[in-house]
Amino acid sequence: MVDRGRRRKGDALLTGRMELHRGGREGILTLAVAGLGLIAAWALVWRDGGPLLAFVGLVLVMLALALAARAHFARQREERAGLQAFLLMADDPAACFMTDAAGHVILRNLAAESRFGTGIRSLHDALGGHVLHPAELLLRLQGAADAAGAACEDVPGHGQVLRLTVHRAGRDNYFWRADEIALPKDGPVIADRVDRPPAVAVGSDLEEVPVAIMTFGPDGVMRIANHAARELMWRGDIRAAMFHDLFEGLGRPVSEWLADVVAGRHPGGSEVLRVRGEEERFLQITLRRHVESGRPGALAILNDATRLKTMEAQFAQSQKMQAIGQLAGGIAHDFNNLLTAISGHCDLLLLRHGREDSDFADLEQIRQNANRAASLVGQLLAFSRKQTLNPEVLDLEDVLADLTHLLNRLMVDKVDLVLAHLGREAGRRLGHIRADKRQVEQVLINLVVNARDAMPEGGDIRIETEPVTLAEDLKRDRATVPAGDYTVIRVVDHGIGIPDHQLRQIFEPFFTTKRVGEGTGLGLSMAYGIVKQSGGFIFVDSMVGQGTTFSLYFPVFEGLDQAPVVEVRRVAAKQGEGVILLVEDEASVRAFASRALSLRGYTVLEAATAEEALAKLEDRSLHVDLFVTDVVMPGMDGPAWVRRAHLERPGVKVVFMSGYAEDGLAEDQARVPNSVFLPKPFSLNDLTSTVQGLLS
């Protein structure tokens, strides 16, 4: 076996020897041909130019031949020396190569064959699958060997470092040695290169600086990474050694930015770049031109900007949701005016058509569809957080106890509902929350229905409640939940789950994964708006094929409940009396409301603007019992003109109407005594009963 191995080893080197000897024979043959040519030329000179000229030519020919032979044999000696040196490395455990100036492999040892294969024709091919940018690496090292005779560089990889050493072997040949060095467990080590002067060893003056500092050459190759930089960039392994392999996200190749800085075409500056391979990790990099031992390069100062980018993303998401909310609220306001006119005039027609009338069914269908449209608009308002809530102090255990009967009726075959109060086992009760009971119930209904639809194979839907105390702020999903006491509700299913790329969109209006006709895409957006308007937080966790969990965090309410300013009494519509000033800029809504109130016996004065209403009130002989006014109007809004009118008529009661509640409406209404709010769209009976409840 030993003899066979040695024979195989000799065969592996034989090709290289034959190539060298073949090169020697080819060189001798070239010299011979050149000599014969020169002798022939001398013979011609002898015949035409005489003996003296022929003698001089012969001397020059012989001198040229001597110099050529000397150079040839010197080259052969260098090649033999290189071959002998390589033969000494035949048993080297490291991979060894001899290449020409173009990188073609002339010789290789058994370790090289074992490590890189037997079919390798060039060193570029051998290193291509193991290091980044092998052509740049080989050119850089070969150039250094031409200048200094030898060069060495540690090339980082995953879990190891490839130490590549090159020596000149003759005039045009190079001897290469590749050692594999395992990384230490305590992190990466950036070793110095042989071609670098000892006075500028890596990290010699920057290693202990508490600022993350790296330096790069004009080709983007990393030269220095101090301890702080290694701690910031890597967690146990070296990912890359090129600037463009470390960072991305500038909008143009980062290598161009570095090259411009090194060349002086750009003064440098700071940019926030993403760490390549990590989606949510960012660094602020300040780049400046830097000259090290006469070699230009770039000095990079690194700072962690992940939190900054996270805050920026949170702000962008907040702005996005706010913009969508404003759009939804504006659309909802206009639609509510239209729906008020449609449903109102439909109610007026129904007053003239009995159930036996042939048109009654059609009118009833119109009203039902108007109500459905109003429900959709209400969901948009919920998302935009511009709906009017009636908050009260709630015990969620009582709310869920009442709601469970309805939720059970929504279940289908093979799907069961399970209610669990996790705090009871530890003797902890849920804290009270302050929210609109009807809206909270709607949120839970939507979440349970979605969970049911996500489990076509059946299973259990769990509604869990738990008192939670956060000792510190909870940061997740680009939101921050302040520390404090919370009542948490979870809706858990074991259905099909939600893919990761859809999780960030599920709360946006009209986004749905259901088939056409199976959903509007407003259920989760409504839930999001209601929870946020109630001061809470909603999060979702999901894995495809395993299920989804929605978590609702409501802050515990410790204060006393606040009763509304005026309790609206819903009374049966009957004949009334009194003078009403109706202020509404939408003509169709104003026409319906005027007719509805007139039919109930009220005297109605109409005004299209607040300014027109104040002008009517300048008549001191005019007696008015009630103001019915829109909130949002061109010019002066509803609360503003009412407060001005109350300076002269303090006892007049007010009904505010609006398609949505502006943020400041609650405060404005609180400053207006004897006032109530009537949301649009409203029916004929809603309007007349509200008015009669105030005037009775």
Short overview:
This protein has 696 residues and is an alpha+beta fold. Helices cover 43% and strands 23% of the residues. The longest helix is centred in the N-terminal third of the chain and has 48 residues, at 2-49.
Describe the structure.
The chain is an alpha+beta fold and 696 residues long. It has five domains: 2-177, PAS domain (Beta-Lactamase); 183-304, Beta-Lactamase; 310-384, Helix Hairpins (Orthogonal Bundle); 392-555, Heat Shock Protein 90, CATH 3.30.565.10; 579-695, Response regulator (Rossmann fold, 3-Layer(aba) Sandwich), CATH 3.40.50. Strands 7-6-11-10-9-8 form a six-stranded antiparallel beta sheet. Helix 1 (2-49) packs antiparallel against helix 2, helix 9 runs antiparallel to helix 10 and helix 16 runs parallel beside helix 17 (638-646).
Tell how many strands the DSSP assignment holds: 25
Q: In whole angstroms, how far apart are the ends?
A: 115 Å
Query: In percent, how much strand structure appears in the residues?
Result: 15-25%
Mean pLDDT: 75
Question: What would the CATH topology of the largest domain be?
Answer: Beta-Lactamase
CATH architecture of the largest domain: 2-Layer Sandwich
Annotated CATH homologous superfamily of the largest domain: PAS domain
Give the uncertain stretches in residue-range form: 1-26, 183-204, 235-239, 563-573
Rg, nearest Å: 43 Å
Shape descriptor reads: elongated
Instruction: Specify the CATH class of the largest domain.
Output: Alpha Beta
Number of domains: 5
The helical percent reads 40-55%
> Helix/strand-derived class?
alpha+beta
The side-by-side strand order for the widest beta sheet comes to 7-6-11-10-9-8
Instruction: Count every helix, treating DSSP H or I runs of 4 or more residues as helices.
Output: 19
Task: Report the biggest beta sheet as strand number plus sense, adding barrel if it closes.
Answer: 6 strands, antiparallel
